[in-house]
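Quick one: examine this chain and its backbone structure tokens and tell me how the chain folds. Here goes:
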Amino acid sequence: AREALARGAMPHLRRLIEQEGYRLAEWRSGLPSTTPAAQAGIMYGNNWDVPAFRWYEKDAQLSVVSKIPALVQRVQRRVSQGRVGILTGGSSYSNLLDGGAAHSLLTLGALSSQRLFANARGVGWLLLFLLNPIRLVRILAVTVWEYLRNLWERAASQFRPGRRRALNVISPFLQTLVNVVLREVQTFGVMLDMYLGVPAIYVNYPGYDEVAHQEGVLHPEALRVLRGIDARIREIDRARRYASRPYDLFVLSDHGLTPSVPFRALYGCTLGEYIRSQIGPQVALDERWGQTPSAKIETGFLLEELAGIEANLPEQGRRLASLLRRYLAEHLPPDPELGWDLERRGDIVVRDSGPLAHVYFNVTAQPMNLSEVAILYPDLIPQLTAHPGIGLVVGREDGQAVVATGQGVFRLSPEMPAGPDHPLSIFADPAYVAEQLARLVSFPHSGDLILLGAWNGRDEIVSFEDQWATHGGIGGPQGHPFILLPPGIHWDTRHVRNAEDLYPLFATLLSPSTLLLPLPSVEAPTGSGPDHAAMNISTSGL
């Protein structure tokens, strides 16, 4: 975030680096560069068969999207089997997975288990929060100001072609809820946990990610969200110094962001629509991609927590909480993905996650070879490889990863000879990209075809979702997150090639108290070493 620091967006992080001996290090998230894969790797050391943010399981005819509680919990049960989470006995705030936390707030992997507000400890926490008049007045004032600003920004966006944001009264309210109210709730919860001596805490601030997706990495609105997050980190850091036990403070992003242009904005159709046009209109297409901002998801989390609060309140309070929950439920815009028929099948299933897409053909429950897809649809692969918005067409052949190009089909391996004809020559480290693609292809539930948006090798990639900053695939900063290491921590993160590699490092800190602050959309500095004293902000998201 050199640029963000230079623009004054993260003054506290800058002070930690320049005055307190914190060290900014880069690590590689691996493929896919998504939050579910990163959190599974960091929290449990296992992100095997987490192929994207959205995917399809042909054998079960099941669509998986990492914002539906039951599906996230299904993934968590699988990746956590036989493993100890790094949050065992601790707390989780606004995460997908709970890392074994004893108490969770707004965490999908824990919604069916013990919620923070479903017990006496959570109700006591809430009462302490409400009895803090200074904090309440500040929240009220900032909420009103942020709502009006957000409404104005959305109105102004109507005059920016291609980057219009929904203009209504509820959308800015939901974004304000996440960027102000829930951020304050999370921060207060972390500070109280430190006072109580909770052994490990992991809090996720997702607001910047959403704004960067819509506006770009360094848009004034995105930087303004960063300033708010930086202020909450400052508040937590100050409270940490008076905690009941010593804590280590880590600030990390679980992926970076690469500036992007939406496929649909460039070519007038979605990726799935293009694929169907090459096969024929008689083909049944099932395509899913992001429609719902994280603010709506976070509001859904809040409804779950309100249900937990009601059971522990006296009658009058229960009536008030119930009234608030019903009001939010009635005014929350519908989420198409949360209303899926998860067993619906199409002839072709396309699952888009930023610049990464998995394509499945429902002629068999088994993964298909590239040659079998070519026999089934002879013209499809040549059309995909020739399309300017598609950078790589990857598949499998006899259990090995292959990439199709206009010059033929190449088996992917780190030993592939370099040169201008190398299908991965546009990337700075072709051997690493080949390794990550081969691993992704080996997942049982990766697509029959894996498509990556075209990367120009410099500063822009094509996103299959309508995003102006993206992540999920490979190319540019999206695969290079950062981690801010406290004094005394001398990890060499140059050897981290996947989020799984961070797990054993954090596992060594399970005895001491550990505080983790992931910022999913802030990207690490360019360069290969861990000794950079500044970071770059790139386009990113959750």
Summary: Residues 170-196 form the longest helix (27 residues). Residues 339-345, 520-542 have pLDDT under 50 and may be disordered. The radius of gyration is 23 Å. The first strand starts at residue 23 and ends at 26.
